[in-house]
């Protein structure tokens, strides 16, 4: 069963006379494997392993720890061992149900006041006299993101939080974390393709309409490093440099907490839109599962995923959990054969080449999901050394991404007939090695809880292009080239301290503070010389295109040049303070953070206030206001590369060779580039939480996020004037250019609605229904003027054109509805999800070329059956009714693709089905 925690309205449940637990539950012997760990986790493990429901006051359990319990014994014996050194006591015992209460918690101390009782005296005091207690109420899981100190339930949090359990992730049938979140978090948007180049490799999703790197990613509460890759040639999220969650093994995840509120004052840079906190598993036992599936149409896009997880005790003082996840994704393609009127081969004189009649006219093979293979390993463990708990967790990943590029027909100056008489398709392969390691220790000192940690993460991506050519070198050109490498790392050292105080007035205060030192590095490594060389070959007389000079550099992916290569590093120092005050039905919180960078980002002070008040026992209001910031990514400042991508130029899809320029390069400066400065934000939210009926919870939160000096990539600057500037600085005149700049101010407004309802159907099982809704709109409130250098080139050059503005404001679904129902009955579990992606619009620089896309409903269905106690078989389908986005009317007849928007939130390859077999042990 899923982990559940319980709380008590009004007064804590008082200790009552102990009743005899019915023999069916009390005397049944069970093999328990419960590690020494936080009390909440230990009680949840007991519930899972015994099948007995546990009710306990979450606020009194927070901060307590349990010893290890291992061996075959009754549930009551195991429970007694878990709580024997705590203030918890058994209060109510019924068939299949145990409720706990607590004497005054020793972790809290009272402030000095006449008659105040010390912590030691509170522990030694006689139990309080029994009083009448209300029946315990079931609520959702505890969350630790958003407020330090005592964990809170989702419904009692002062800021909106979504919780996604491991079972929910598994039931999506998706091969990665981001893909699963797309169907489970209403305010999360993940396009099928954010763009071209490396944008097709990294999973790139944004929260509340903002960029992916404006959401901070944590693992076990510790900052996760960013990818070395960058959304350099993309449509959506252009220029963002996020953390890649698909490099965390899905089998390692216990749950994901998504904080939908600005939290830079609490957690630091990047937390403008919110925080995604991955909590790793701490449960004993293990499982292995194999999933295989493919698309309905063309039977392509085959994928296989193998995941495994195993947790075990380290004596009676520690625990270790190991995980593995592999992914093998094959190519899918929705291109169509080009018409017979399209000339593929050069003419022979004035006549068509005879090969035109027999050639395979499905020339495009990459219009769909691209191939990718990877393996992720992970671990999570801790061990008690005296009164201190030492912990560590980490991941190691290898991923190979295959990016087949657009077909270069023989009827091209770059397809030298001596090498490619039938044309060619360049293929870029990116091999990544990624790891993240965290070590730390935590304990208490004179009543203060402390946590000291150090984490280091690094992502290394090496690129090689094959089936290519540097045609400027002539027929002697190699066909395979080492393009170069990208390396990103982060080293984070943190100390966090917190303590709770009980006030004489009856309220309590949680005081937290800490500091952090962070070092970031970024490197662009040059490719082999021939990958970027500018040769002097001229097409000889007697061949098509005689007298012309082919393009320089390796086709599709010219190598990083020596002038592109760079190494950059920066340090930052931060300190924060946070306080939370609870008095009866009122909670108030405040946080402030100072952060200082040793580069041009400088220093900043940000703050946050939030609060919650219970109007009735079922209705509460909550709200927050905060300021935030995001320092420019080192990749945004230093990345330099060239890539091919189609752009709509004068109503025609044209293949452009686009050069991304570092902001400090002489070419970028000549086009008006300036040093990047941090983004700043103001975030406001107001909401209500409701529990109008038993087992029904509803949250409604409205928000407004203002982001100033937002970093974006410029329009694609192309034309004669730009070519002249590039050529004057030693670059090929055939290139187009772009660079990053603090271009715009935006205002994002929206509302989130999340509802959850559970119902026991008696002999017909149990039903859980979830509803999520998000409405989101972004408007540009200011765009900087063209810099003088760009303005001097003419009025046709615009720093941030209508196309770029539209991708920022119109290209996302303006609303999203997620409806899920899970029914469990005996050995059968059925999961149904309906997701409605709202309408969106792709704007072009010419209004006549705009395209609008209507809303679509996508249905996902999965059914699982427990064949034996250890084996479960599952079948499912994503996009069950094989829905495609509307055709866009902009079709590239020469390559047979482009009829669907690549930015579609549910893809453009139709539905797929899968089967999974899982063994639990």
Beta-strand percentage range: over 45%
- Secondary structure tally, helices: 13
Query: Using DSSP, what is the number of strands?
Result: 48
Structural class of the helices, strands and pairings?
A: mainly beta
Overall mean pLDDT = 85
Rounded Rg: 30 Å
Residue stretches low in confidence (pLDDT < 50, at least 5 long) are 1-26, 104-140
CA distance, first residue to last residue: 16 Å
Helix content: under 10%
Largest sheet: 22 strands, antiparallel, barrel
- Give the overall form: globular
Description:
This protein is 9% helix and 46% strand. With 921 residues, the protein is mostly beta strands. The protein has a 22-stranded antiparallel β-barrel. A 5-stranded mixed beta sheet has the order 13-20-21-17-18. Strand 40 and strand 41 form a beta hairpin. Helix 2 runs antiparallel to helix 4 (75-83). The protein starts with a strand and ends with a strand. The model is unreliable at 1-26 and 104-140 (pLDDT under 50).
List keywords for this structure.
single chain; 5-stranded mixed β-sheet; 921 residues; 9% helix; 22-stranded antiparallel beta barrel; disordered N terminus; 46% strand; globular; 13 helices; mainly beta
Record the SSE blueprint.
Elements: E1 5-7, H1 23-26, E2 29-34, E3 37-38, H2 39-50, E4 53-55, H3 58-61, E5 65-66, E6 69-74, H4 75-83, E7 88-94, E8 97-102, E9 109-110, H5 119-124, E10 137-139, E11 142-143, E12 152-153, E13 161-165, H6 166-171, H7 177-184, E14 188-189, E15 195-196, E16 206-207, E17 215-219, E18 222-223, E19 233-234, E20 253-259, H8 264-267, E21 274-280, E22 285-295, E23 303-314, E24 318-329, E25 372-385, E26 388-404, E27 427-445, E28 448-466, E29 481-502, E30 508-525, E31 566-583, E32 586-597, E33 603-614, E34 619-630, H9 634-638, E35 641-649, E36 652-660, H10 666-670, E37 679-693, E38 696-713, H11 720-728, E39 736-738, E40 740-760, E41 766-783, H12 788-791, H13 802-809, E42 815-825, E43 828-837, E44 840-842, E45 851-853, E46 856-866, E47 871-878, E48 912-920
Parallel strand pairs: 4-8, 9-29, 17-21, 36-39
Antiparallel strand pairs: 1-10, 2-6, 3-5, 7-8, 11-12, 13-20, 14-16, 15-19, 17-18, 20-21, 22-23, 22-48, 23-24, 24-25, 25-26, 26-27, 27-28, 28-29, 29-30, 30-31, 31-32, 32-33, 33-34, 34-37, 35-36, 37-38, 38-40, 40-41, 41-42, 42-43, 43-46, 44-45, 46-47, 47-48
